[in-house]
Amino acid sequence: MRIAIVAESFLPLMNGVTNSILRVLEHLQERGDEVLVIAPSTQDTGAPDEVYGASIHRLPSVPLAGYTNVRVAMGGVYRVKRILAEYAPDVVHLASPFVLGWRAAQAAHQLGIPTIAIYQTEVPSYAGRYGVPFLENWAWSRVENIHLLASRTLVPSSFALQQLRGRGIPRIEMWRRGVDTRRFSPDKRDAGWRASVAPAGERLIGYVGRLAAEKQVQDLAVLANVPGTRLVIVGDGPQRQALEDALPNAVFTGFLGGEELARAVASFDLFVHPGELETFCQTIQEAMASGVPVVATGRGGPLDLVENSRTGWLYEPGDLVALRDRVVDLMGDDAKRRAFATTAHASVQGRTWSMLGAELVAHYQAVLAAAEDPGTSHTSTSHGTREHGTRERAAW
Question: For 183-209, what is each residue's pLDDT tens digit?
Fold first, then answer.
């Protein structure tokens, strides 16, 4: 197939969206597909122009206010339409679309190219976290318009499925996330690393993720004095300095990736995630694959990932007393924590990126087949002939 992936964020910025795109690119390269990634520009002169065989087309961008390593692509629909018309993909993949993705959704619609929109980030709800709650309704309107145009929307969790259905979005399917169980494994537990962050032998309570308002890392302050424990924060972001001030006894490692991250996660005794705006939460899967039980907020993606009293605990959003109680419960009972860890590890085996990649390709093929059959297409948009590379889009 010939696929264009439109990414709101991409390398060198590493986050859940970028990680998912990389795993998709890896799968598509193995299949021999042709891929173009359209993404915001970067100031990193070492950023690659090809990743897993896919060409990277960078659009001019500006840094997001207050979060300078996140960049927002500039320009209008016409610029994206011109790129897509020249590349002539079979399918356009919209990765967590909002700004650039909205332009791409319109451009693909005008060209009659079928689209798969991946709902991965609850952007509208970020408005309240960043002090602009009056923008939330506008942001939801943007999200709805994107997904109404899409040939199919893929969501990562049952919470996200019901959320979008409640907003009238049709043609929704579930597409979860894979986890690399070779990289994230209990075998990566490292006594030396544990001693380096907790020289007094404390048990480790770990968090992995961006240090940003929407992650609510400040809620972990209620764990600061849990007896015999050390809080370890892995990640970076605009709130790092404020969090270091608020959590003076915690260890902040900064961003970790690859084997460094796998070693850190496997070395935790318990993983915590306080964020309430997770559509999935990949770091929970990685902790479970590493044989680490989880305490997380009972909203969004964690509802599908954490099974109460088997793989970890969920607590009511905002109930920080319950968060602390759940952590104390597991940190004070070695046998229970080990049992949860064993069950957590077993629960994610088989969730490979290869399997998820094959599911995604099946979705590509389904929307392409529907676009080529006007009797099954959901809109009256134009559809392309099958002349590869020089295909022209002709209206039915």
Answer: 999 999 999 999 999 999 999 999 999
